[in-house]
Amino acid sequence: MKTNARANHGFTLVELAITMVILAILASLALPSYRQYILRGHRADATRALQDVASREESYFFSNSGYTASLTTLGTNSSVAGQYFTVTLASSSSSVYTATATAQGSQAKDALCTSFSIDQVGRKTVTGTGSPTDCWGTQ
């Protein structure tokens, strides 16, 4: 019985190079989709926070016959939307308010929705290239 002196014990450099090229192509296709998924998730956190602030404003209005411009008075703060958005509250009188979430950090690269707002009548607006539906989801 004759034995083969050159036994196949592993991968060749060409096989490893081909595998690395295939993995690089797959990663280059998947990474942008993943980034968009992450940005959408952070937007959802911000819209939830704005809706919470709006709800707190309505409760405050019911008890005090007017809105407030202070997040602290509502029992929350500017980081209510997490680390990727800063929430501010503006009120020009006791009968109106606007709560705004502004992107910060890595979220600021989201050109679709750099900031979005809700007011006392529930009007939802955005700053960026996206529409209110893009940023707020279905309305």
Low-confidence stretches: none
First and last CA, distance? 78 Å
CATH superfamily: Glycoprotein, Type 4 Pilin
Q: Briefly, what CATH class?
A: Alpha Beta
CATH architecture: 2-Layer Sandwich
Shape: rod-shaped
Question: Major beta sheet, specifics?
Answer: 4 strands, antiparallel
Secondary structure: number of strands: 4
What can you tell me about this protein's structure?
The longest helix has 52 residues. The protein starts with 12 loop residues before the first helix and ends with a helix. Strands 1-2-3-4 form a 4-stranded antiparallel beta sheet. The protein is built from 2 helices and 4 strands. β1 and β2 form a beta hairpin. The mean pLDDT is 87. It has one domain: 2-Layer Sandwich (Glycoprotein, Type 4 Pilin), CATH 3.30.700.10. By secondary structure, the chain is of the alpha+beta class.
Note the topology.
Blueprint: H1 13-64, E1 85-93, E2 96-103, E3 115-119, E4 124-127, H2 132-136
Antiparallel strand pairs: 1-2, 2-3, 3-4
Concise description?
By secondary structure, the chain is of the alpha+beta class. The chain is built from two helices and four strands.
Notable characteristics:
4 strands; 139 residues; alpha+beta; Glycoprotein, Type 4 Pilin; four-stranded antiparallel sheet; rod-shaped
